[in-house]
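Entry 14. Two folds queued back to back today. First construct below, sequence then structure tokens.
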Amino acid sequence: MKLCTTLLILNILIMACKPKKEEYFTSGFKAMEVTDSSALIWTRLYEQNKPNPVVHKKTHSHPSYPIDFNENMSLDSVDGGVRGTAGELKFTISSGSNVFESPWIKVTEEDDFTASYLFNSLKAVNEYDVTVESKESGRKISGEFRTAPKRNDESAIHFTVSTCQFFWSFDDSIRGFKVYDAMNGMNPDFFVQTGDYVYYDRKGPEAKDIPTARHKWHAMDSWKSLVDFHLVVPMYMIKDDHDLLKNDISDQSESYGKISWNDGLKLWRENVPLRSEPYRTFRWGKDLQIWLVEGREFRSFNKMEDGPGKTILGTQQKSWLEQTLKESDATFKILFSATPIIGPDSKNKRDNHANKSFQTEGDWMREMLSQIDNVYIINGDRHWQYHSVDSATQVNEFGSGPVSDSHSQGWDQDDVRPQHRFLRVNGGFLGVKITRESGQPEIEFTHYDVDGNEVYSAEFQSNL
């Protein structure tokens, strides 16, 4: 009996002395797909508490690239790398005495150590505290988000938009991109990222296999400015070509190195785990409804001859878009597209509605949108900031510009076209505010530089 007791005590002492497993939430978490009653919380579990330091110098070109970078170096030592780890975690959100908990969720290498949970039955226009906890180490990280207002709520709304972020176009080797700190200081209600969140097909390293593609997400998500921002601002995301597979991808039989089309979709869904179709719409009170369209999964080949059968959206999405836009009673309606619909765009481009290669569907889109009151387009993909108005339909489009100055390219600052109301070939972001002055709904689009300084603004009143 004494021997058994002694062995038990020894075992307890050994277990007590055993170091806890290293588990960290290095990239924080993201509150996604927020509605007036639900939110999707996402995270990834790591074994490093911070990413590998940036040790390579970079070029001053647009975009920037690392100098003397070994494309074959180990991912364990590459700049920005963060190793994931298997384990269990749970999400808790709370507001006062109302507490919602997920079950313990296993994270595995199969899904790149990611986990997500959809919370329902939430209150509208309500602040929720978020805690993510790992089981073995007890590590925690906390943040917050606010749910959307109900459809009859006339509250003011403020959100921000950005696009096109390549790791090596960073502003700061510790924090990453200045736009995220600038946006964070504005305390927006939500944020929309309109595609090219990462670039698989650019050096530093090029991602021609799944582990390297996953590295791109680890490195981007772990920039300190992004972590701090996403801990307090909910977001919506749409994908484009570079964060799906490669530049201008339209042929689903193509691959990039060892990454197939289906691999690219799985990688995307690991990081943006939507519960339904990739195209969707969200209501933010009485005065705003947003649409996020999918531009890669349903498109025809870019090289196909243009005509009624050539499409970016696909038949089902086109019907859904037209129907939901016409049914909406929101004061302002904003269509988010990963690629331009108005433009103008570069002559050599052929993968969007502003190009002749998709002109038939583009003409339909512009005409359809012009028949609906108070519709505006916000697009990604273009590496410059602009506000354009289509000469035929008078539909307005706003391009946020890339997240850094060193990622701006593709247009000549002196090439001002008749459609342009504003043109700036540099980085920054877009802010949108919806208010009611003396009962009249107004919407204001503001372009900012990377430091958050206003460089252009356009204001519109509703056509009630």
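Second construct, same run, same settings:
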Amino acid sequence: MKGYKELDIYNLAFKLAVKIYRLSLDLPHPDKFETGSQIRRSSQSVKDNIAEGYGRRRYKADFIKFLVASHSSCLEATSQAEFLAEVKNSEQWQIVAEELNSIGIKIYNFIEYVDKNWKTGRG
């Protein structure tokens, strides 16, 4: 593997963060600057922690720590998307919540894989 961009979980998280960014900018004031800002940050944290963790993949415990942070950010973003879906009665945000949930499952499964199979010293 040549880089974090080859990880499916990174690519899924990146694409969804872009989608969330664009959707959140269409929220009315003050939602755009409150919940919108929060979900932009948490969704970007999902992909960023995967990338940062990959940079520390040589140290399995560090890699897992960043993947767990990514999973936690994904849960946070899911909660925010569910909130927006409910208060805005929005099918778009409900779909985003479902997509985040799916990515969260994939991240969790990848954490399990790394924990059981990852060899330290990978370059």
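Quick look at the second one. The chain has one domain: 4-117. The mean pLDDT is 96.
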